[in-house]
Amino acid sequence: MLSSPIRIASRSASTQVLPRGLAAITQKNPDDVVITFAKRTAMGRAKKGQLKDTTVDELLQALFKASLASAKIDTAKIDDICVGVCHPPSPLYISRAAALAAGIHNHVPISTVNRLCSSGLMAIRNTAHAIKSGEVTLGLAVGVESMSTDPRPDPKVSEPVDAHKEPHDCIQPMGWTSEMVAEHYNVPREKQDAYALISHSRAIQAFKAGVFKDEILPIDIRGQTIDTDDTIRLTTTADSLKGLKPVFPNWGSTPSTTAGNASGVGDGAALCVMTTRANAEKEGLTVVAKFVGTSVVGVEPRFMGISPVVAIPKLLAQHGLTKDGIDVYEINEAFASQFAYCVEELGVSMDKINPNGGSIAISHPLGMTGVRQVVTGLQHLKRMNQQVLLTSMCVGSGMGAAGLFVNES
Prior knowledge:
Blueprint: H1 3-10, H2 22-26, E1 33-40, E2 44-45, H3 56-71, E3 80-84, H4 91-101, E4 110-113, H5 119-133, E5 138-146, H6 159-162, H7 165-170, H8 174-184, H9 189-208, E6 219-221, E7 224-226, H10 238-242, E8 266-276, H11 277-283, E9 289-298, H12 308-318, E10 328-331, H13 336-346, H14 359-362, H15 366-384, E11 388-395, E12 399-407
Parallel strand pairs: 3-4, 3-5, 10-11
Antiparallel strand pairs: 1-8, 1-9, 2-8, 5-8, 6-7, 9-12, 11-12
Helix pairs in contact: 1-12, 3-4, 5-15, 8-13, 9-13
């Protein structure tokens, strides 16, 4: 089943010479693409939480204002902004309007990118590539989503396209792909709940210890300060997970996906300031991390969730690294079915993966997650005095992505 994706992973995507090996990726060069600021908003539970009435443009405006004040950068020196976002109508217009409303100069252009769950990572990727090419010196990479005000649309294709198996599968609901992975790769409900409990338990512990405060940037929404996640279910136990009914009873031979072992639905935003190392030193900006590279892959749409097992090895191979050379992995928990399979197929210890919980526990605002994982992972590396972060996620329609970063805090 994985022969085609593995073949894809081994194919070279470019003739560019990439840094290979730990010494190379951690080396500091003037033309390195670096992150000088990485923060996220607190997240809100979709339809019920603190951001349920906050639209994407209002959320972005608040994030831009708070970030510019905290990052202490001259808005006149911003060359470009890229916003990863999936579902709001006219996303470019509202993102541009939000930037202007936040006080960003009108000469600063903006773009939006949608690669579903990897949209935030793609914003980082696009910004990094623009900086590396010399077209941009200072850019903002943003991930945002309001699952409350912009729920996932029902994708449709024409009858001639839908008549083919893979095109038909690629527009099916993500819950269906979760059940297909669970059934085909034999991931039983008990295993899914066990991995979900790890996520919930770690997030609860981190929340109670105040760990997330380091990565959250307080924002002001209509006179109210938003600075604490309201998505973490503090009373979750093994028994409470066991008692939940499957939410997709009509899919799969033995439906097993529940509200407790699938990613939470939420609202939120995250932002990275990116530039060259030389410019950061010139402007007196503190380097938080070095951007190393990304990988993007495709897999069979029916088994969308397995894609991290293709994206991660591809990224490691690009940079001459082994899985043991990574200090922390942030692998998105879209569903416990696919997450459990990926963890066990990759052969990486859970001690290194999502040490403070993942999207099952803290929620998955689609466009935000790709940046949120970077923010969360870098803060953890800083606390633990570690270096290398690898993020990854499956992507709707049968794709996957991964990103590699070096902590310098």
